[in-house]
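Usage

Read records sequentially. Each one opens with the input sequence:
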Amino acid sequence: MWDYLFANFLKRAFKHGSLIVHLASGKTLRLGGGTDTPVEVTLHDPSLTRKIMQNPDMAVGEAYMNGGMTIKDDDLYGFLSLAVRNMGRNGERFNNPTPTQKFTQSAQRMLRKISQHNPIGRAQENVAHHYDLSDALYDLFLDADKQYSCGYYKTPDDTLEQAQAQKKEHIARKLCLKPGMQVLDIGCGWGGMGLTLARDYGAQVVGVTLSKEQHKVAVARVQVAGLEGQIDFRLQDYRHTEGQFDRIVSVGMFEHVGVPHYAEYFNRVRDLLAPDGVALIHTIGRAAPPNVTSPWVAKYIFPGGYVPAMSEVAPVIEDANLITTDIEIWRIHYADTLRDWRARFEASMDQAITLYDERFCRMWRYYLVAAEVTFRLDRQVVFQFQLTKQQQAVPLTRDYLY
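and closes with the structure output:
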């Protein structure tokens, strides 16, 4: 029965491209419009037909991780690209969801506030799940500055290193920095942004992170750079930070705040920002209405994380009595960043396996590929919000950026 229902489900979902699915029962399904080179998948576990129908996102991710599903030539990128091409928009995982999927999606939306509840203690636990992994793992695929956020590709030929340097420069320009300014870096990671702002722009930097591993590396980098008098990296929640700062920057941290804490976040930014100060908030965003985090991503990669819609962020900024002086949207930049990360990770797979195991590496590869495909083919982007308390805190035209 499940094979029959599964076949009907896939026929409704897959209209484009060509997909061949070998079921554990021995049956073969041929789906799509028959165009393009077929992507060929084998389901080794008989229970997968039921599990995929009930929760496609979770079941497919776990099946790839655990070896219950294999793809010919391990063409994960081709498979996930085909899946995204056949997805519904606005966050639906497949067109025409079944009643079971509709129930699952409704339950996820109802539980959204609970899953994104990130009080101070829980926030640190969620951060540790991802960012306190071995530094050696991140060294396998990040640039030397350990920038773990979207690069800024000015040309298709830019290297990862160029894109990350250009990202930092672009953000520094938006901050309108002057030597000696007090800068707060919320979610400072391994310290690359803070080091750049101190070394290249003469800023006095306080950086806060909840990751013990990142904090350890960031502090060591300050000592190596001889910038102890300019940089103070703290293992601290931004909600415990005190003082006032001329500039506030936050890159790739807002995704971990959670919708229930947006007001708390922007009120804290307002309170910490000097009267003539400038803040730059850089976050992944969705060019679609609000929805929920992928269940697989929430379980295995970013617990408590959420990618916001513009409609969820803009009203909270207004309520915090902050002025939005610039909004910039980066589209394919993160897809290209993830492409470069994935290529480096795949080239270093043997080293990654020695750090963890094959299952972990399949999980990590699935994460990188799925994220790249989502940015390239679906409605996921990057938002940059420039915020002030005064209308004229930044120049009146964008000429200063270029």
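Summary fields computed downstream for this record:
- The first strand starts at residue 18 and ends at 22.
- The chain has two domains: 2-110, 115-401.
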